[in-house]
């Protein structure tokens, strides 16, 4: 039987029932015509009527009483107040502001402030191919929870990449998690207690602050320079505050795009060792580097450095999986914590799709093209922002962020609020700064800043703000 | 070009390189033949060589130096100690014991102690159909994080089901999460502080204890009877301990299979209101009931009851998504917490697949068949266990658990350890009991207890244990 005809017939039956309910010829609580009789009335097969009734029941318009047929729902659904429910609420410009605005605004809104690439820059062909293959996977992969550490083939792929960077690790020093953020969350739970002190870069990824606040720890910021954290301040803070953990990105730092030079990495590790501080290295932008730079985890050999990352920036943020590489005892404890708080590791279906894309031949080529594309976008966006008097703090070696200073010490929060009114989500400096010392900075995602409406609107917003 | 030939040619090139490395004609650090020259040598196209090199690079055997070709890895991967790394470690029989044994044991192990259905009992055909459709989804669905509350269509489907049970809720009173366990974890973070008191049923789902321990709260157990918690003890504990939260399953309680009668539900809610206690109702087994029973969330109207659930038991534990229904202010706070600790809601790809299966016509029929199949399995397993002197505490109305007493007060932990040595994972009573008062009980998953080897092995294990 041709699919489209069957589909049409099902829709016809659904429409007939909808009309009966709308015209009150079927009232709430009424029993629907029996499958057999309505099939005869409509001149379709009983299967078609069953399909139609089931769909209407899934919508909540009718309900199936087990063993006794279908009835019109007595409990009509309340009206959907979409706008009210779904639109990001007016709220203070804090770290959640950027998250909510960028995640919940609809597709018509432009998002130079967001933290991901446009969907058509992602390796969707390889992903679609992996999805088609997934439809033929065995039942166990589709149905079961999967192992507590996550897919072994994906952990092996990660180990191969770590080895390229000089990190020798074994499969039991790596675990997979649901998301990169969840990796960090598990580690915080494992290492920290309320009241502990954690050091972050100032500025740093805004969600670090939100996450650490959820752990009720004391947050201190170390000033970040174009060559990494200010080492004098770093060492002074270690002496004065004895932070238990330092959380950073060594390569393509978010939001600045800076990369840690080897000398800084070496000194920083020595200071950490002296003060028994643990370092969490979030390496989520690793694949965007033109050539790999030095990593704290590699210098340290996963002794006091824990490395985390995910595939959300390069592969898909919809099919999510994060990872943690750390010494084996810590991984054992983290696996227990993940079982307790998430029951098991990441989705086996997600890890299978990611493994297929990474192991396939096209991923490396895709990343090479992407790096070239981003280099062009960076140059183009630097030019356009320059015309507006907005200047980058440094020119990053890779990635998609530009950390920029606004002209005339304009307040980035005010600019972001004015831009939002024009349908543009920006990422104002102070959401990245624990000291609130970046009021005239703004983070731009170059891949989302190419739309010509952005330059025009920003020019107007800046003119009014002066 | 036919796929299989291309695949064979790629494999040939990979094998040729592997052999060169194994025979040391290519040593660590050596540059591989150029794409063009090796394509000529092998009589294949350059594309095939690129594909083969990329796959070898993904395996870690060779590495791509950006812009300069491929080299044999100098850092061979350490040997995979699979057995050591992957086998569940010998450890105390605590709540983690059952999780680790059931999640990490290989497929040859029989698992009457596990908490999920066999993969061929799941709606895999509908899932495969949804996966094939997913391959044609638009780029945004495949690439982006999705909204903070999760897919609106899936929330609407949930609202339709809630309405059938008499729960009137709006889309902003529902949020989707990564997993059912994560739903509970977010709520604990939102409501609890270390040192708070939480009441659970004794016995209850073993992971509740593990999760609450991660929150460093005081755990108290209320004795569970065939008609729900013992109300006298419940009220006495409320007076004496003033728990902030009570966590329970109202329908098809885990592990006992009991269902709360309306009178108990009503009294329990009144007592909770008097002591300003919040109730978390975990409704993960809802769809296994032959007819819906009364729900605390429905009586209470999402005032002090928070309802959680997931699709892991009926649809897939590999494609995971949980939900929370609660008053709107709480959902707002929980959404912020989920952004901070997970960056965004559940995987949009996962919620799309779940929506497709639930909205499709076949799901209701699948669940009806499943309930019949489980009823038969329950009868059969009750008979088999009876022959071993193992008797159910009650006969549940639905679901897949039987909570059973072992003969002669045998110690279930010892029996479980002995059974594990024979390749059978059991769930001994005390992992479910905060008071450790269920030492001669065992939870059986009837769907996994039909294998005839289980009766034989259990008979032997029990004989030796006497």
From TrEMBL, chains A, B:
GO molecular function list: DNA binding; DNA-binding transcription factor activity; pyridoxal phosphate binding
Answer whether the UniProt record assigns the keyword Coiled coil to this protein: yes
Query: What are the protein's UniProt keywords?
Result: Coiled coil, DNA-binding, Pyridoxal phosphate, Transcription, Transcription regulation
Residues in HTH gntR-type domain copies: 7-75
Which InterPro entries does the entry mention?
Aminotransferase_I/II_large, HTH_trans_reg/aminotransferase, PyrdxlP-dep_Trfase, PyrdxlP-dep_Trfase_major, PyrdxlP-dep_Trfase_small, Tscrpt_reg_HTH_GntR, WH-like_DNA-bd_sf, WH_DNA-bd_sf
Q: Name one Pfam family in it.
A: GntR
Indicate yes or no for the key word Transcription regulation: yes
Q: Which residues form a coiled coil?
A: 360-387
In terms of domain of life, where is this protein from?
Bacteria
Q: Which CDD domains does the protein's record reference? A: AAT_like, WHTH_GntR
Name the protein family.
In the C-terminal section; belongs to the class-I pyridoxal-phosphate-dependent aminotransferase family.
Q: What protein am I looking at?
A: DNA-binding transcriptional MocR family regulator
């Amino acid at each position: 039987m041709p699919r489209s005809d069957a589909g049409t017939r099902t829709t016809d039956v659904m429409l007939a029932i909808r009309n009966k309910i709308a015209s009150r010829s079927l009232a709430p609580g009424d029993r629907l015509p029996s499958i057999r009789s309505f099939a005869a009335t409509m001149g379709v097969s009983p299967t078609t009527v069953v399909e139609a009734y089931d769909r209407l029941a899934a919508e909540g318009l009718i309900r199936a009483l087990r063993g006794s047929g279908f009835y019109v729902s007595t409990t009509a659904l309340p009206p959907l107040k979409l706008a009210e429910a779904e639109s990001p609420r007016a709220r203070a410009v804090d770290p959640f502001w950027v998250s909510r605005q960028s995640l919940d605004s609809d597709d018509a809104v432009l998002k130079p402030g967001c933290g991901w690439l446009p969907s058509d820059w992602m390796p969707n062909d390889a992903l679609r191919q992996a999805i088609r293959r997934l439809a033929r996977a065995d039942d166990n992969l589709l149905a079961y929870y999967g192992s507590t550490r996550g897919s072994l083939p994906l952990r092996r792929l990660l180990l191969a990449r770590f080895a390229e960077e000089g990190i020798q690790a074994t499969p039991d020093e790596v675990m997979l998690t649901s998301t990169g953020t969840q990796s960090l969350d598990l580690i915080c739970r494992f290492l920290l207690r309320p009241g502990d002190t954690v050091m972050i870069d100032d500025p740093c990824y805004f969600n670090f602050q939100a996450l650490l606040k959820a752990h009720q720890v004391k947050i201190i910021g170390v000033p970040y320079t174009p060559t990494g954290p200010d080492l004098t301040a770093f060492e002074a803070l270690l002496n004065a505050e004895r932070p238990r953990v330092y959380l950073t990105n060594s390569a393509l730092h978010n939001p600045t795009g800076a990369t840690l030079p080897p000398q800084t990495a070496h000194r920083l590790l020595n200071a950490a060792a002296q003060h028994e501080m643990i370092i969490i290295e979030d390496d989520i932008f690793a694949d965007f580097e033109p050539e790999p730079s030095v990593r704290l985890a590699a210098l340290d050999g996963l002794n006091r450095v824990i490395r985390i990352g995910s595939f959300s920036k390069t592969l898909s943020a919809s099919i999510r999986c994060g990872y943690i590489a750390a010494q084996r005892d810590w991984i054992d404890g983290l696996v227990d914590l993940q079982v307790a708080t998430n029951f098991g590791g990441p989705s086996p279906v997600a890890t299978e799709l990611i493994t297929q894309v990474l192991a396939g031949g096209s991923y490396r080529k895709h990343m090479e093209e992407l790096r070239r594309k981003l280099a062009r976008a960076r140059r183009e966006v630097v030019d356009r922002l320059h015309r507006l008097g907005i200047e980058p703090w440094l020119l990053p070696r890779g990635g998609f962020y530009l950390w920029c200073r606004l002209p005339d010490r304009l307040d980035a929060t005010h600019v972001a609020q004015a831009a939002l009114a024009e349908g543009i989500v920006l990422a104002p400096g102070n959401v990245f700064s624990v000291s609130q010392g970046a009021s005239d900075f703004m983070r731009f995602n170059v891949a989302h800043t190419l739309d010509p409406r952005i330059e025009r609107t920003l020019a107007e917003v800046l003119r009014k703000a002066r």
